[in-house]
Design a protein that fits this description.
467 residues, alpha/beta, TIM Barrel, eight-stranded parallel beta sheet, five-stranded mixed beta sheet, 17 strands, 40% helix, binds 6-O-phosphono-beta-D-glucopyranose, Glyco_hydro_1, hydrolase
Length: 467
Amino acid sequence: HQNVKPFPKNFFWGASTSAYQVEGAWNEDGKGPSVIDVGHHPEGVTDFKVASDHYHRYKEDVALLAEMGLKAYRFSIAWTRIYPNGTGEANPKGIEFYNSLINELKEKGIEPIVTMYHFDLPYALQQKGGWSNRETVDAFENYAKTLFTHFGDRVKYWLTINEQNMMILHGTAIGTVDLHLENPEKELYQQNHHMLLAQAKAIKLCHEMLPDAKIGPAPNICYIYPASSRPEDVLAAQNFNSIRNWLYLDAACFGRYNSVAWSYFEEKGYTPAIQEGDMEILASAKPDFIAFNYYTSMTVAHSNKDGNDRHSTGDQQIVIGDSGVYKGHTNEHLRKTEFGWEIDPVGFRITLREIYDRYHLPLLVTENGLGAFDKLEEGDVINDDYRIDFLREHIKQAQLAITDGVDLIGYCPWSAIDLVSTHQGISKRYGFIYVNRDEFDLKDLRRIRKKSFYWYQKIIQTNGENL
Ligand code: BG6
């Protein structure tokens, strides 16, 4: 493009976190345990009990976010602070905490963008079958109602479920499903169906209760590349695009399962049980926008059922492949992060264009960022130039996508402040603000502005004019 369009005037320059990764205070003020609290931790990394201690330091944290100039802050509410057992009596102290946090944000002119559920299902619900149990749909609807009732006067942007597609595709890794089941995938797609119903009900309820509010899904979306122009590779990429991405957005936006995903279910024996009226529920809810997380692209090749399909691509932690459907492939055109994730800013533009083209809804980026081992240098300095480069390249591509005509309303990189990574501890840092602790030594947990903090502050001040 010769003439790049400017970022819109009210663009949400933001940043993101999630409750269990940042709050700590895992069992305080009546909070119940979630699947995260009782989950298995890989050896050598911290658990989520203290995290960044944001629960006790939220005022100081919000002041820093305001200093950075954030227009929006995307965070999640811990279901178990509101309902310690998932259902039953609400916990006033939990409601009080989020009231205070939201008020603090509003006072500073920061728009709260709230994720209702970010991986931390109440353990009490998990014990009753979790998402395999249809009652969890009702529990979620009831939880949603409580959130809208208490916070709906100030929260105008809601996200239903964070990365539902990752919970399903990597359910055996995340622990939502019993590995010993004969057909865990079938169970996962049943859970998926229930989550889709829960999401649709929450969207409908939001529109009824809060006519001015906006609500949308928040999957992890990245466009899938074929390993080559060989037609069989292109078919494999289509397969994976349908199963990994469009399945979730088609269900959210059009209220139906896409045909490629459905025939895949039939082929593999994963078809979920659908009760009478379910499809009407899905079709009755329309999101107002699409939020999505983007870290890396992925590449796949044709799978000839040789039993050697599983291979990591994009994100080295995630091994993908499905016999006869697609096979993971390393993209030799991309550099990798210290943690082995492929870096693909152009893929970000491609993904933005593709989602917009399919659904024609406003888009909001709710995660994008670089996990790295930051070094705290003398004089409280963190020179995270690599993070600045990563974000700059992605923001440039976002601007090109806007120039292409994509209706992008905001960009909330991961993460506002250092927090505990989902599988790799606190040493894998993402924040603009450093939290002074190690895996097992909590030190003083003090907050230190990184070089990227000052850089992002300027970007926001100038509305992205001088990238
Ligand atoms: C997303 C999640 O999958 O990626 C976050 O929504 C997560 O919760 C983020 O932290 C980065 O992944 P990781 O594994 O590096 O923490």
